[in-house]
Amino acid sequence: MSAEGAAALPARLERLRYQDLGRCAELERELFPGDDPWRESVFASELDQGHYYLGAWVGDELVGYAGLAVVGRRPVAEASVQTIGVDPRWQGRGVGRGLLRALLRRADAFEATTFLEVRTDNAPAMALYVAHGFEVVGLRKRYYQPSGADAYTMRRLPVSEAEHGRTAS
């Protein structure tokens, strides 16, 4: 991340701890009330599996979280953005962007192609992902339950591959 991007982030990013998971579950209920929000136990399972989870803090308040799972090794590693959530009071201020960039740095360290799912009606999130090199590669009908909302599957090549593709054309 550039120094400018780092300076613009209004929150500090740190690894999530088990004691933070109640707040994550609280934010999930607020953010995703119609789509089976994650419970504290789901977040705990993600940490138990060794996945990479970050929290965004403003002062002592956890205002966002994000998680990444990486499978495989170079040169065939794949990463999956498991979740990103930002307190509605902090949306639009760069917290989600900062969390996403941190996840992508981690994925790029593994030279991993990164995938995610996003609701087809979530234009702000899709714009964020496209701005960070993601492209739509599929559609998952009725992916989110119980609402039945559709999701796009999006993919981002590792920086090294993406840069190689730009120089080859």
Automatic annotation (TrEMBL):
PANTHER family the record matches: AMINOALKYLPHOSPHONATE N-ACETYLTRANSFERASE-RELATED-RELATED
CDD domains in alphabetical order: NAT_SF (cd04301)
Keyword annotations from UniProtKB, A to Z: Acyltransferase, Transferase
InterPro entries, per the entry: AcTrfase_RimI/Ard1, Acyl_CoA_acyltransferase, Bact_Acetyltransf, GNAT_dom
Listed name of the protein: Ribosomal-protein-alanine N-acetyltransferase
SUPFAM superfamilies found in the cross-reference section: Acyl-CoA N-acyltransferases (Nat)
Organism (species): Streptoalloteichus tenebrarius (strain ATCC 17920 / DSM 40477 / JCM 4838 / CBS 697.72 / NBRC 16177 / NCIMB 11028 / NRRL B-12390 / A12253. 1 / ISP 5477)
Sequence ranges assigned to domain N-acetyltransferase in this UniProt record: 11-159
